[in-house]
Specification:
The complex is a heterodimer of chains A (about 325) and B (about 500). With about 325 residues, chain A is of the alpha/beta class. Chain A folds into 2 domains: about 160 residues, D-Maltodextrin-Binding Protein, domain 2 (3-Layer(aba) Sandwich); about 140 residues, Periplasmic binding protein-like II (D-Maltodextrin-Binding Protein, domain 2, 3-Layer(aba) Sandwich). Chain A has 14 helices and 11 strands. The longest helix of chain A is centred in the first third of the chain and has 18 residues. Chain B is globular. Chain B has one domain: MetI-like fold (Orthogonal Bundle), CATH 1.10.3720. The chains are: A alpha/beta (about 325), B mainly alpha (about 500).
Chain lengths: ~325, ~500
């Protein structure tokens, strides 16, 4: 009798499992890792949706988009999370994304009204340095100083591309001159963020291109207050990370529910200390302790998404020319 | 195997839109790539010659450990090795600290010389191992004869060792050249900027940022042609001479007893060991500090990596042994060159190509481990052939007629003649494959199965999340496991042997 009960229970459980809809979300690697926001987000969303959330980590933002283009309309994904403002236009051009009605009281430094993508977190690019360093106040001062910096290659890394757009947004046609003055400060250019940050922590450079929120990691997770982000008076370029639903999804309601969840308090409160970015909507509980110590730039820079592809091409050519001499 | 590469290439091309040819930037990348690969391979092999010679002539405590450690730099994840090198040679490194203490100006590692230095660090030990096997293959009787004839050390080198070097060096050169050809992160990080753009970086950019599959395929072809060309040129120079049989006795070297010779060998070995061990020590020290902060998922990933490595070894041996046997029966050239192509094919290109092939029919995640194992075996094949072919050829030349007379064929031939004579080389090849698969990141990134993360991928993820300490710990674990698997196979092969 006991076996029968067990068997019945198993069968019911299997049936229930088979009925549970599954939502597949493609995102970048660091989101899904044990120490990233993934596990907490999955738990919180599954409590509300009676569904199975499957987070699939695939490289970084650029790799996500390349993957999506490879898979095309056949993709198993219902939602893509982790593209940023510099990839939005290219993503829309694939025609794979569906419009969304999601809206929230965004606390971004810029207005947001994109019909396809919803922002879930954001940050400012900044040069991170040790507290004992007298940091320069702008790119010109940095170029004139003999400080050494490590940056990422814009051809293989998102922050690297961000720096390119930053200099271009701040200086426009003067950008090549800025890059020429920076050339002797650049110790080296790395493939991705982790290599650059690793080099900086090794003491290979005085400053590294990262985010204003980077010192928060050291402060909160490591109780180390020795890192700071330099404030530049020409303003800081922003990175806004977005989530969007695919038109080919077989779970449109669930996908929309996930987008709504990502901008809700439940998700927003998880992100700051797991993804180490600012939440797109400041949760009712406020920012975590430690975030108030961070550098807050007086001015936010962001190139409109539609202009990014053309500017990127021009800026990349200028960058290559200035640093290859 | 060629078919596997071509299939991938064809698949990428099938999805490409008609695009432009190579731009000025691409040509600059090609020039840089070839220049650094030439310098790196020539220097690696040139420096390996005295080191291998010294190691072949001397017996000392710790020699076996040193020979095993020669495999270490090559199997380290690139970024770990680079950080290790920087601890020593970097702006803030031990070398510059020493120079500063002596009042000397600091040296910068960043630039063309830095790229070459790192490549020599990676490849000189590998070349040393390959050459060492060459020395070991010289019958002891020849040295005895040379000693009886009272040959001077130089004449002795000229008559006995030089012919062996002619046999082994071209293949080693070609192999290191091809490895350096596909370098990307090392070249960029130590090259100091976009001057150090390699073809592999251009391929990466074409796939990832521009999604220009046509350009990616074109650049992949350029890389294949360069590697294939180099391989053909190098292997043409391999003379097909037999150096005659011997009785496999231990090799006393009557020519090397002089004090100056001992001193010379000692200095060479000490320098090589320093160059090798100091950066490795840096990696180990960083790793030990990070071990406690490592999350348990790292151990899980280590389990996945071990099974991938074992599967790769089996697939490799099934591929490499028949291929080597087939090549050994023929004149040098063609087939081995094809082996090198496997190495020069960009993993990103192969991964993407197979993805395009598999995706319409099945979920690529289901094939993640299969593809990883296959590609690992393919990447290791050129090494295995380089290691297996020369002794296999030797065995066929020396004992071929005798075996035919005795009617040894098929499996019996392998069991009685080839496998016992190739024991050491098979162990070395298997160990290298295991270690390489353990550290491989290339294809797994595209096919990464969310539930089966490998150790190197886990390490990269830790680094990407500010957890540099935990990542250093994972790197140490990776180094330990890779060396472990290498040591077990290598030791198994060298049991009661000397090389």
């Amino acid at each position: 009798m006991k076996y029968l009960t067990f068997a019945t229970a198993m069968l019911t459980a299997t049936a229930a499992w088979a009925d549970t809809p599954e939502l597949t979300v493609y995102t970048y690697d660091s989101f899904t890792s044990d120490w990233g926001p993934g596990p907490a987000i999955e738990k919180a969303f599954e409590e509300t949706c009676a569904c199975d959330l499957r987070l699939v980590g695939l490289g970084d933002g650029a790799a996500l988009l390349a993957r999506l283009k490879l898979e095309g309309a056949r993709s198993d994904a219902d939602v893509v999370m982790g593209l940023d403002t510099s990839l939005i236009t290219a993503a829309k051009e694939t025609g794979l994304f569906a419009e969304t009605a999601v809206n929230a009281n965004y606390t971004l430094p810029v207005a947001w009204n994109d019909p396809v993508f919803a922002p879930y977190d954001w940050g400012y690019f900044a040069f991170v340095h040790n507290n004992d360093l007298a940091a320069p106040a702008n790119f010109k001062a940095l170029g004139e100083s003999d400080l050494k910096i490590v940056i990422q290659d814009p051809r293989s890394s998102t922050p690297g591309l961000g720096l390119l757009m930053w200099v271009k947004a701040a200086y426009g046609d003067e950008a090549p001159a800025i890059w020429e003055s920076l050339a002797d400060n650049v110790v080296t250019v790395t493939k991705g963020w982790s290599e650059a940050y690793g080099l900086f922590l090794e003491g290979e450079a005085d400053m590294v291109l990262s985010y204003t929120t980077s010192p928060a990691y050291h402060l909160i997770a490591e109780e180390d207050d020795s890192k700071a982000a330099a404030e530049f008076d020409e303003g800081h370029y922003m990175q806004i990370e977005v989530v969007g639903a695919l038109a080919g999804t077989d779970q449109p309601e669930l996908a929309e529910a996930f987008l709504n969840f990502m901008v809700s308090d439940a998700a927003q409160a998880i992100l700051p200390t797991t993804n180490w970015m600012y939440p797109a909507v400041t949760p009712a509980s406020g920012l975590p302790e430690g975030f108030e110590t961070l550098t807050v730039p007086a001015k936010a820079l962001l190139t409109p998404a539609d202009d990014v592809p053309a500017i990127r091409e021009e800026a990349l050519a200028e960058w290559l020319k200035a640093l290859s001499q | 195997m060629l078919a596997l590469i071509l299939l991938a290439l064809g698949a990428v091309l099938s999805r490409a839109e008609a695009g432009a040819g190579l731009g000025a930037g691409d040509w600059a990348a090609i020039r840089f790539t070839v220049a650094q690969a030439l310098w790196s391979s020539v220097l690696s092999v040139l420096l390996a010659v005295p080191v291998a010679r010294a190691l072949a002539r001397r017996r000392f405590a710790g020699r076996a450990a040193l020979v095993t450690l020669l495999g270490a730099p090559f199997i380290l994840p690139v970024i770990v090795a680079v950080l290790g090198l920087l601890t020593v040679f970097g702006r803030n490194g031990w070398l510059n600290a020493g120079l500063e203490a002596l009042g000397l100006p600091a040296v910068s590692i960043y630039g063309f010389h830095g790229v070459v230095l790192a490549h020599v660090f990676f490849n000189m030990p590998l070349a040393t191992r390959l050459l060492l096997q060459g020395w070991q293959a010289i019958p002891a009787e020849r040295f005895r004869l040379a000693a009886q004839l009272r040959l001077t050390p130089f004449a002795m080198f000229r008559a006995v060792e030089w012919p062996m070097l002619l046999q082994v060096v071209p293949g080693a050169l070609a192999l290191v050249f091809v490895i350096c050809l596909t370098s990307f992160a090392v070249a960029l990080t130590l090259g100091g900027g976009p001057r150090a753009t390699t073809i592999e970086l251009a391929i990466y950019q074409a796939f990832r940022f521009d999604f220009d599959l046509g350009r990616a395929a074109l650049l992949s072809v350029v890389q294949l042609v360069l590697a294939g060309g180099m391989a053909l040129v190098a292997l043409r120079f391999v003379p097909t001479i037999s150096i005659g049989g011997g009785l496999d006795r231990v090799m006393p070297r009557w020519d090397a007893w002089g004090g100056m010779q001992r001193l010379g060998d000692g200095v060479v070995i000490a320098f090589a060991a320093l160059f090798l061990l100091v950066p490795l020590t840096a990696v180990i020290l960083r790793g030990l500090a990070g071990l406690p902060s490592m999350p348990t998922s790292v151990y899980h990933a280590a389990g996945v990596s071990i099974s991938v490595a074992i599967a790769s070894i089996i697939v490799l041996l099934l591929l490499a042994l028949p291929m080597a046997g087939w090549i050994a029966g023929r004149k040098a050239g063609g087939v081995e060159a094809v082996g090198l192509l496997g190495l020069s094919a960009s993993p990103l290109m192969i991964g993407t190509g197979w993805f395009i092939v598999i995706n319409p029919y099945a979920d690529p995640f289901d094939f993640a481990l299969l593809v990883t194992v296959l590609v690992n075996a393919m990447m290791a094949l050129p090494f295995a052939l380089r290691i297996l072919v020369p002794p296999m050829r030797e065995a066929v030349q020396r004992y071929g007629r005798l075996s035919t007379m005795l009617g040894l064929r098929g499996w019996v031939l392998w069991r009685v003649l080839l496998l016992p004579r190739l024991r050491a080389q098979i162990g070395f090849a298997a160990g290298l494959t295991g270690a390489l698969s353990m550290g491989d990141l290339g294809v797994i990134a595209l096919f990464a199965d969310p539930d089966r993360v490998t150790l190197p991928l886990q390490m990269v993820r830790l680094m990407g999340a500010y957890r540099m300490d935990a990542a250093a710990g994972a790197a140490l674990l990776l180094l330990g496991l890779s060396l472990g698997i290498f040591w077990i196979c290598d030791k198994g092969g060298r049991w009661r042997a000397e090389a």
